[in-house]
Amino acid sequence: MKTILILGVGGLGCPAALALKEAGVPLRLVLVDPDRVERSNLARQILFSEADVGQPKAEVAARKLGAEARVLRFEPSTAADLLRGCDVLLDGTDDFATRFLANDEAVRRRIPLVHGAALGWTGQLLTVLPGRSACLRCFFEGPPAPGALPTCAEAGVLAPLCGAVGAAMAEAALAVLSGKAKAGVLRRWDARRGAERPLALRRDPLCAVCAGVAS
After folding, report:
1. Lowest mean pLDDT: which of 147-156, 163-172, 196-205?
2. pTM for this structure?
3. Structural domains in the chain?
4. Which end of the chain has fewer CB atoms within 10 angstroms, the N or the C?
C-alpha cells in the first residue's frame, strides 16, 4: 500500500485528504499538523466543525478519515522520521520556510512532491519529480524576505479556491502514483477572473537543491 504524507491539515490539506480518501484507491494517509482547530478555520477547513474547536487538527481529521495523525511540526529534526516510507509528499502548509524545507527534503530523498498554495484570490500547484522536473527553488530560489508578502491571516483566502486547489493536489498525487504525473508545470489560478494559467518550468542547472540529483 502506498503512503501519502500530507503536511498541513488546513484549507488545502482538508479537501486534499478527503478527495484521496474518497478516490477508491487503497492508500495509507498520514496527516501532519501541530495546530489545533480554531473557529476562524471553519469556513474553509471542511473536515472540522464547532465541536472540534480546540482539538488537534491532525487527530480530528485522521479520526474522520481513518488516517494516521502526527501532531508535530515539519522541521529539520522531524523530517527524516516523517518521510520514512513516504511515496508522495503533499505540501499544503502556509508558511514559506516550511514549503521550501519540504521541497528540499523531498528532492534530496527522491520523494515526489505536490506543492499547493492559496492566498487571496490566487492559487498555485506544482508537481516535482526529483531528478526529472524543476523544483520550487529552480523558479523561486528561496523564501521571500520576512514581511515582503502578506500571510494568509493578513490577506485572507477565498474558501472555494482552497477546495479547488486541494482537490487538484489529490488528483496530482494519484497521477504520480499511476505514473501519469504532469510535472514541471506551475498551475496558477486567478479566481477573480475565473482563469487558470500553466507555466512550464525548466530545471535550473545551478539549483542549490536539485542540480545534483540525477534522474
Report:
1. 147-156
2. 0.94
3. 2-200 (3.40.50.720)
4. N
